[in-house]
């Protein structure tokens, strides 16, 4: 898997994926479904990092990292046509590498308990489950 910093074409690709993806759309379509308008301004901050993931076949998905002090909050996505082929796990390997390179020591992920695919990928790469937060979401963490 390769990664490259997300640009406007990448943000448009994200919007196209989300528009055609009921699963991803239900999870975070309100934000990434309008990536050009909503994600672009946040990416101006030095703490925010957007990446497109790709391989020789083309774009796979994206990574969104926010790093405050030495803690990273992550969001990751594999487009529907590329799922169940190990790219989710490879994406998380890249997340850990990118977060560590940007200075993060600890990575946090927050997941709806119904998001089976996300729970499976986090568990499969060894994230530790911390329990439920005040919004009934599951919290995971990993040390880089
Ligand atoms: C979560 C997501 C990234 C997984 O991507 P993926 O490429 O399908 O994941 P992988 O093929 O690497 O699968 C990794 C593990 O998760 C399991 N898994 C993946 N999708 C699953 C599903 N829908 N139900 C049950 N298990 C699932 C795989 O079987 C594999 O488990 P294994 O190690 O026991 O074989 C993808 O489904 C996605 O982008 N979903 C929408 C957005 C999202 O939920 N993002 C994460 C929240 S921040």
UniProtKB/TrEMBL annotation:
PROSITE patterns registered for this protein in UniProt: GNAT
Keywords, in A-Z order: Acyltransferase, Transferase
Residue span, N-acetyltransferase domain: 1-144
Coiled coil: none
Keyword Transferase: yes
Top-level lineage group: Bacteria
InterPro entries given in the database record: Acyl_CoA_acyltransferase, Bact_Acetyltransf, GNAT_dom
PANTHER family found in the cross-reference section: ACETYLTRANSFERASE, AMINOALKYLPHOSPHONATE N-ACETYLTRANSFERASE-RELATED-RELATED
Name of protein: N-acetyltransferase domain-containing protein
Organism the protein comes from: Kribbella sancticallisti
């Amino acid at each position: 898997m390769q990664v490259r910093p997300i640009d406007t074409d990448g943000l448009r690709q994200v919007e196209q994926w989300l528009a055609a993806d009921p699963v991803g759309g239900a999870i975070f379509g309100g934000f990434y479904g309008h990536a050009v308008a909503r994600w672009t301004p946040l990416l101006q901050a030095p703490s925010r990092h957007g990446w497109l993931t790709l391989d020789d076949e083309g774009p796979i998905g994206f990574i969104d990292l926010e790093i405050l002090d030495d803690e990273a909050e992550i969001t990751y996505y594999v487009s529907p046509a590329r799922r169940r082929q190990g790219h989710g796990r490879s994406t998380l390997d890249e997340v850990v590498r990118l977060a560590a390179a940007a200075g993060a020591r600890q990575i946090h992920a927050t997941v709806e308990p119904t998001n089976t695919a996300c729970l499976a990928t986090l568990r499969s790469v060894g994230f530790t489950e911390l329990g439920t937060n005040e919004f009934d979401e599951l919290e995971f963490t990993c040390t880089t």
